[in-house]
């Protein structure tokens, strides 16, 4: 569906985001006579709606067992924290998440995990003038930052890590592999780690266009997220199938997956 995954914003540094999945995306499609920038005549128009929830599906409060967690980026970090400190979670999918708190302390009852350190001198600039922060964070394996490593060995559920190997927000592949090593060193099962070449930070539902760069609210300036459009699009289709298969396996329910169709 290159018509959608190849979309680019009219204004730079914008990312297409669906804030409310209870309503569909409405995409207006125009067929024009000729090509930009020449004057064009409208030949046809249609509105395409992309649903995120099937008819009749509602969000309901859920408590374990049988609870699955899905988190991307900071949400992935929070999911790792939840499975490490909370009971009743049966499965967790982590998409390009950190294994240490970033930007602030993590509090749970009497425990506090400090944020992993960083060094602004490791910021780089791309040839297009964007900030690249992939090297900024310290390794949570370093002596002064070990206390920031989330205690994933306390988790009692299986994991699926989905990783973009061209993630420029932080070192997601390194984090996933270290979480795997940490779990196995404490006698836990080896988690499933799936890595996608040419894939950036935001692995979203299938056919969402790749966001190459946008404002990073923590950094306070536009940064690059990584990824190559075609490879990133393929990864999003596969990740959609992988996470459904994983949840069906560990949470029960009907077999099969919802196809990534428009």
TrEMBL record:
- All copies of domain BAAT/Acyl-CoA thioester hydrolase C-terminal, residue ranges: 59-252
InterPro entries, per the entry: AB_hydrolase_fold (IPR029058), BAAT_C (IPR014940), Thio_Ohase/BAAT_N (IPR042490)
One Gene Ontology biological process: fatty acid metabolic process
GO MF term (any one): fatty acyl-CoA hydrolase activity
Protein name stated in the entry: BAAT/Acyl-CoA thioester hydrolase C-terminal domain-containing protein
Please report the organism this UniProt entry assigns to the protein: Ovis ammon polii
Q: What is the lineage of its organism?
A: Eukaryota, Metazoa, Chordata, Craniata, Vertebrata
